[in-house]
Amino acid sequence: MVDIRQLFDLSGKVALVTGGSRGLGREMVLAFAHAGADVVISSRKLESCEELAAVVEKETGQRALPVACHVGEWGQVEQLAEKAYDHFGKVDVLVNNAGMSPIYDHVADVTEALYDKVLDVNLKGPFRLTSIVGTRMAEGDGGSIIMVSSNGAMRPRSNIIPYAAAKAGLNAMTVGFAHAFAPKVRVNCIMPGPFLTDISKAWDLEAFEKRAKETIFLQRGGQPEEIVGAALYFASSASTYTTGTVLPVTGGDM
Fold first, then answer.
1. Which of 233, 203, 196 has its CA nearest to residue 218?
2. CB 139: neighbour CB atoms within 10 A?
3. CA triplet 143, 146, 147: central angle to 5 degrees?
4. What pLDDT is attached to residue 198?
5. Which residues of 115-135 are buried (b: 16+ CB within 10 A; e: fewer)?
6. Which helix (DSSP H) or strand (DSSP E) does residue 159 occupy?
7. 86 burial type by CB count under 10 A (0-12 exposed, 13-18 middle, 19+ buried)
8. How many CB atoms lie within 10 A of CB 204?
9. Strand partners, 247
10. So what's the pLDDT on residue 164?
11. Residue 140 CB: number of other CB atoms within 10 A?
12. Catalytic amino acids?
């Protein structure tokens, strides 16, 4: 019989989270550490990573390695993986959470530089990091890789077309990598809907709340900590027979 108390235990594991210093990434870092994992916290701003690392070590006693990395840069992604393995000797859980979705007025105003930046951060970086870490996992004791997509991949709007295309690509890569690294590595994807993170401060919240009442089954945006259940499921032995799966965590957003 399965020991339910141990099902989500990450003791002895190492988890690497990109975009890990704030928003959904921060909640996942804290959840993994509270579940017993040591963590690698990565974002562009080292100071933010260091601040969260101090919180992790104080609250949980787990080790935390802060690493500055722009995931849109191929070389920086390679250095991130190298630093994680040099410090901890392994990575058991990888979360590709870093992303960006800049606002534009009209599709004709999207510059080549903006398009490339969106695709680099949301798609190229996760591809390279997953390729490196997934290969080492498959050659070692296995592991779990979690992509963080967006329901925009399935329901794109006119103001997020490059972002939606990148996230749709991430959904496809989830299945492809699950095949590439099977059977020792599980690769899954969380596809969040609207969450009330720092990004939501730029929203017209009155308009959002009105739309939520009409189009989201739960009639509200998600709180950042509500991503934790899905993340722990995919990271832990609770999901040992789940791979190549894209899980919507959207509140029923239509």
1. 196
2. 11
3. 145
4. 82
5. eeebbbbbbbbbbbbbbbbbe
6. none
7. exposed
8. 9
9. 190
10. 97
11. 14
12. 163
Give this prediction's pTM. 0.96
Give me 235's structure tokens: 């990271």
> In the chain, which residues have pLDDT < 70?
none
CATH topology for 8-249?
Rossmann fold (3.40.50)
Query: Sheet holding 64-68: strands in order across?
Result: 64-68, 38-43, 14-18, 93-96, 143-148, 185-192, 246-249
Domain boundaries, the chain: 8-249
Instruction: Report pLDDT for 118.
Output: 97
- Three-state secondary structure string covering 76-107: HHHHHHHHHHHHHCCCCEEEECCCCCCCCCCH
**Dihedral through CA 39, CA 40, CA 42, CA 48, nearest 10?**
60
pLDDT, tens only, 212-245: 999 999 999 999 999 999 999 999 999 999 999 9
Amino acid at 109: D
DSSP H or E stretch at residue 39: strand 38-43
Q: Which amino acid is at 123?
A: L
- Name the 3-class secondary structure at 143: strand
Closest to 92 (Cα-Cα) out of 13, 29, 188: 13
Q: 145 with 187: CB under 8 angstroms?
A: yes
In this predicted structure, what is the pLDDT of residue 4? Answer: 87
Which H or E run contains 26? helix 23-34
Residues 6 or more apart whose CB falls under 8 angstroms from that of 86 comprise none
